[in-house]
Amino acid sequence: xxxxxxxAPLSARIGxxxxxxxLFVSIAAPLLxxxxxxxxIGDPWETMSAKTLLGTDHLGxxxxxxxxxxARHTILLAILVTALAFCLGTFLAFLAAVLGGWVNQVxxxxxxxxxxxxxxxxxxxxxxxxxxxxxxxxxVIAIPAATRVYRxxxxxxxxxxxxxxxxxxxxxxxxxxxxxxxxxxxxxxSPLSAEFGLRFCFVFLFISSLSFLGLGLQPPTADWGGMxxxxxxxxxxxxxxxxxxxxxxxxxxxxINLVVDWFLHRSAGKVPDEx
Amino acid sequence: xxxxxxxSGLHLEAVVDETHKPIVKxxxxxxxxxxxxxxxxxxxxxxxxxxxAVMGYCRPGCRxxxxxxxxxxxxxxxxxxxxxxxxxxxxxxxxxxxxxAAFNPAHKLIRQYAEGPIRHGFMAHGQAEREAxxxxxxxxxxxxxxxxxxYPHQVSGGQLQRAMVAMAMACQPDIxxxxxxxxxxxxxxxxxxxxxxxxxxxxxxxxxIYITHDLAVVIQLADRIMVLRYGELVEEGTPRQLLEAPQExxxxxxxxxxxxxxxxxxxxxxxxxxxxxxxLTASYRRKGPNVLEDVNLTVARGxxxxxxxxxxxxxxxxxxxxxxxxxxxxxxxxFKGRALPMVLAKRNRDQLRHIQMIYQMPDIALNPRHLxxxxxxxxxxxxxxxxxxxxxxxxxxxxxxxxxxxxYIDRLPTELSGGEKQRICIARALAAExxxxxxxxxxxxxxxxxxxxxxKLLQGLQDELKVTxxxITHDLAxxxxxxxxxxxxxxxxxxxxGAKETVLMPPHHEYTExxxxxxxxxxxxxxxxxxxxxxxxxxxx
Lengths: 275, 541
Prior knowledge:
The structure holds two protein chains of two kinds.
Chain A: H1 2-7, H2 10-27, H3 29-32, H4 63-99, H5 101-116, H6 119-130, H7 134-161, H8 164-172, H9 176-212, H10 224-231, H11 243-267
Chain B: E1 5-16, E2 19-31, E3 36-40, H1 47-53, E4 62-71, E5 74-75, H2 81-87, E6 92-95, H3 99-102, H4 109-119, H5 125-138, H6 157-169, E7 175-179, H7 187-203, E8 207-212, H8 215-221, E9 224-229, E10 232-237, H9 239-244, H10 249-255, E11 275-283, E12 290-299, E13 304-308, H11 315-323, E14 330-335, E15 338-339, H12 349-354, E16 355-358, H13 362-365, H14 372-384, H15 388-401, H16 418-431, E17 436-440, H17 448-465, E18 468-473, H18 476-482, E19 485-490, E20 493-499, H19 500-504, H20 510-517, H21 526-540
Parallel strand pairs in B: 3-8, 3-9, 6-7, 7-8, 13-18, 13-19, 16-17, 17-18
Antiparallel strand pairs in B: 1-2, 1-4, 4-5, 9-10, 11-12, 11-14, 14-15, 19-20
Helix pairs in contact in B: 4-5, 4-6, 6-7, 14-15, 14-16, 15-16, 16-17
């Protein structure tokens, strides 16, 4: 980990710091927030002062508190969803790659069909029909995300599958789960972890978008996308309030992208400028 | 007379992170017009690096640290990009090791030939095509007027290699750098390409730098030879000088490769054969052509049976069928007297254990994320259910058997050299305590000196453990050294088999004769003699 930090260029280091800060805030939220998540402490849309460091939102709640709790809810939810998508996508992908044949065909075609749905429409329809509870929200985002992971993981697994060491394991008589978990997975981890970061960004943005549309995390739960929605009216009065949660979304996305860029740059070859 | 090329004090280094590692340490090289210089050495000696540096090109991550490369008055190390582009292709050309990787599969051969002269502004398309056909004829390609209009995948390996030589000659360069041009070819094809190279360089008075690890090949072509090792010059001289009076110990060893012989093994009468293959026929698709046709084979215990053939002969397919990865359409396999299920999934653990396989390329035969401890420990756990303490002990014993230090137990495969990795593969096969080990071209990817050590190890292990080897190879020198019995395969059939002495002595099957005569010998006039003989016999027919 430390070695990774030392090797990284400045942009990746900034990215890593941003991610670490965000993670820290989301985990330590109850300790850091000055007020309660839903406590009304002043007038709507107050400006920055000693009492409220970033001002208040449209109901009079402390904006800083809301941002901190928003970080917690959105980030932790996004991590859960991405992890779920990864487990599901990677497992099915490796299965398809190792077993081949009709298993591969059926799974891949199912994934193709799912990918044909625009993700937002898919999510909106499901959420409208099945309600906006957290489990539904989780699955409605995880399943389309899993299809993207499936694509990548299957390509990786198919490359590794043809290596002689996998054949050695097969000839020995190893079972499918062993081959998937002990032979293929360790060799696929590097590009998969870069994909994890990227996917997390998309999931995170997706949750915020859904909340902005009113179908994600429901009020009074703090959520950055939802906060942009709630405070949007302030713009008409020239008040900066909705820009803060929007900026929060931007900084995390940029931070993750900086790190993922560097990961991808490391695993891909470098092209010389002059031959 | 001024030299065409003079390299003085060339130092090249690899730059990794902040460290500079020297790869070529002070090479001096001169080349006259029309002269063929052989650069020979093992992998890592720096020969390809020097060959490319002559054109002012360094692989990514490397750079020229110091030294001068004077090509016909031009100092290449300080040339501008533009100047280098004018030299490359037109005055110095490069023929890569793998023709398949050097050609664009989406364009016809003749178009790729014409690309060079046209882009450099020498001639128009029509004239380029005419010249191409002349060169193809000179290089003895079949159907020279039409072969250029094919795509790379539609011609054979040897033909593609010659097309690449033609492409290099398109702009009539002063120097051609041949980088292991025949290493990837079968012995019989190699002859044709070598003959073609010799002919063309003589006729057009082109100078050449011939890079290879095969001393027997380079003495057929070169006027002078430089032996490289670890980026330094070991010895330099004419082929005759090197053959008759090598100065350095290293050169001696290169010359003596594969001369160790094995004392004939006594056949143990009365023991059941370990493996019996009867009437084996296999194909990849249900109605497809047969890749194996009626193969019959018997392997006795403790013997080494060598299966020889060129690419496409079916030897690897035979191995895969025996091991259970490719079910045959007809025929049976009997192991230790009992019938062996054809499909891998139907075999029991004991049957799986007793037949082990070692692969050609140790880099991909070992999982780069597994420690040596896991690689060797897994078969012990899987087949014998050994507990950790016992495994540790056994792993150390195995490492000792393959002559590797105990501390390797905590290493990853990427931290080992090619020869060491192959020893780990051998140890892994031995861990299962098998009856039969199938060695699929296990020394083909190794340097000759390293390969020799591995072969000696395999011999020693056989003497000690009485394990049986099925040795698949295309290299006749190896076969002469270690085999007890030889099986010659061609196009999926066995055309000759028997004890080593019987097969190697005439009279032979026609193909065996061809194969045996195609192995380069350590004589400078071997190639010329062979080509002359073949021309005569072709003329007589």
